[in-house]
């Protein structure tokens, strides 16, 4: 069964002896949404085989160290069936009881799903943000699921991964849930066949779960069917044409030999002919114009970034008129790594990670170039530097037009307040006094919070009333401050920050589109990539 599983599902490894060379996973990152789907498929195959062999229902041995990473960065689940199950031998007041639904009983399939969800969720949620493990159980898992943000500000694959993990955490509501059913419910248009193969769902399956699918999925399936029929008809026509030619062709060896001798003689004559034309030679087909790189959205975004400006090889490529394949590949690799590093950076910012957590997450990156870029940006944040905070946008309720406002921003390092005076105008915006422009200065470095509060008053009521009281926290509080919208009801403040450590703000949620200078490559699995976001419940 082990060999069958390893061939059928690349996301599953049976036995610790097969995983000794795999590094433990430290966090979830880019591409792990697909790896989690493969792991679920592997579990579905394993569970079906266990039921067929009457060897139980679930594995019951998924723990914190069960998720590993291969050398190429893929996520792998290690299941050891040779040891007594942790699920069956765990007491309800043990910390491990948070991993399973049927604690102290033989494991079911849902126990493996819940355990996978808890382990993955604890990679997403820093230790200081997790709920306290008391009696564990479903209450802990619900609170843990509430700690997982699926904000639209996060990159698409990260949101997909987080939604899938939350679904795993909460699937314990159905004690009889099977892994195959979970795949069908939460990874739409996919079914496990009787032969333990993952395939697109049939029309009947789609109709049964129509409320959980999307019209877009049906449209894509229909277009794919039409495309396959058209390709098949074209290939059939080509096949008939080739068959006719083979049936009627005459393979006269002597004739072919004579033709070849004539071609050799003609080729020699052309070589000996003097070159009387001075027409320009066509460009090398292996060269690409530099404009393709300069117009790349990723290059435009990171052109002034410290990582790119410090890359001498990239800067040498940037000033050329044409690029070779090798130079194109290098430029694409550098820009791709910067996009990935920026995604990790903004995840750290949004998670309000502490300084220790930031260091751990940077060091945990499997891509050395991504890790290097993150260290450069974090080095900028660690510098004790004077920063300028400028109000970019404001809004107050209509009833406060004409009121005076005082905005206070605290420099926690110097224990000093900057106060900005303003008056609300008829457009429900704040107008600032020339003597008190809409900016403040603070000295900031990584780890310092940034508190602000907005007070209002009128000529009849000079007592200040706090309208907004907020604080940006985490090791990277300044980038969080820059992307934040400080709001309390209809009161709102937005700021620009200079100099801002890290990648440009525009890289938050950045989608580069298809690179112009590269040829698209097929999916590594030989098929069309599966986009899961719209299919998750």
UniProtKB/TrEMBL annotation:
Disordered: annotated span: 267-290, 517-537
Organism encoding this protein: Novipirellula aureliae
Upper classification of the organism: Bacteria, Pseudomonadati, Planctomycetota, Planctomycetia, Pirellulales
Protein name: Uncharacterized protein
Domain of life per record: Bacteria
Annotated Basic and acidic residues bias: 518-537
């Amino acid at each position: 069964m082990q060999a069958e599983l390893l061939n059928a599902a690349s996301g599953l490894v049976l036995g610790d002896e097969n995983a000794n060379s795999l590094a433990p996973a430290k966090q979830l990152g880019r591409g792990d949404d697909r790896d989690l789907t493969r792991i679920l498929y592997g579990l579905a195959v394993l569970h079906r085989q266990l039921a067929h062999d009457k060897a139980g229902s679930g594995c019951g041995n998924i723990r914190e160290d069960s998720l590993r990473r291969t050398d190429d960065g893929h996520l792998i689940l290690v299941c050891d069936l040779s040891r007594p199950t942790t699920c069956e031998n765990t007491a309800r007041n043990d910390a491990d009881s948070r991993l399973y639904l049927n604690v102290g009983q033989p494991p079911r399939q849902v126990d493996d799903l819940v355990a996978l969800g808890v382990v993955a969720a604890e990679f997403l949620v820093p230790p200081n943000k997790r709920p306290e493990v008391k009696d564990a159980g479903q209450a802990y898992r619900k609170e843990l699921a509430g700690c997982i943000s699926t904000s639209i500000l996060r990159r698409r694959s990260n949101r997909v991964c987080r939604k899938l993990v939350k679904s795993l955490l909460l699937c314990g509501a159905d004690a009889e849930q099977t892994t195959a059913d979970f795949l069908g419910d939460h990874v739409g248009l996919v079914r496990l066949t009787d032969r333990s193969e993952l395939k697109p769902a049939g029309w009947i399956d789609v109709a049964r779960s129509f409320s959980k699918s999307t019209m877009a999925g049906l449209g894509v399936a229909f277009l794919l069917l039409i495309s396959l029929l058209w390709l098949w008809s074209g290939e059939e026509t080509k096949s008939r044409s080739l068959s006719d030619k083979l049936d009627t062709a005459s393979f006269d060896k002597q004739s072919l030999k004579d033709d070849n001798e004539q071609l050799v003689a003609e080729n020699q004559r052309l070589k000996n002919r003097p070159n009387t034309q001075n027409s320009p030679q066509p460009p090398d087909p292996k060269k690409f114009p530099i404009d393709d790189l300069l117009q790349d959205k990723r290059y435009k975004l990171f052109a002034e970034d410290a990582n790119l400006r410090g890359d001498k090889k990239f800067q040498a490529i940037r000033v050329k008129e044409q690029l070779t394949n090798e130079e194109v590949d290098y430029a694409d690799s550098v820009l791709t790594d910067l996009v990935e590093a920026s995604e990790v950076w903004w995840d750290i910012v949004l998670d309000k990670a502490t300084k220790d957590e930031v260091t751990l997450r940077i060091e945990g990156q499997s891509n050395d170039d991504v890790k290097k870029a993150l260290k450069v940006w974090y080095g900028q944040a660690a510098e004790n530097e004077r920063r300028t905070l400028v109000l970019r946008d404001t809004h107050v309720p209509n009833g406060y037009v004409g009121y005076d406002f005082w905005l206070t921003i605290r420099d926690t390092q110097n224990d000093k307040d900057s106060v900005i005076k303003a008056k609300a105008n008829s457009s429900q915006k704040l107008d600032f006094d020339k003597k008190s422009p809409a900016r403040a200065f603070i000295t900031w470095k990584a780890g310092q919070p940034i508190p602000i509060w907005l007070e209002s008053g009128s000529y009849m009521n000079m007592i200040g009333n706090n309208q907004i009281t907020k604080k940006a926290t985490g090791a990277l509080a300044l980038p969080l401050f820059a992307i934040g919208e400080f709001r309390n009801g209809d009161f709102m403040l937005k700021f620009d920050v200079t100099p801002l450590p890290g990648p440009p703000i525009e890289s938050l949620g950045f989608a580069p589109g298809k690179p112009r200078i590269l040829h698209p490559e097929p999916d590594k699995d030989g098929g069309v990539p599966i986009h899961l976001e719209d299919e998750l419940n």
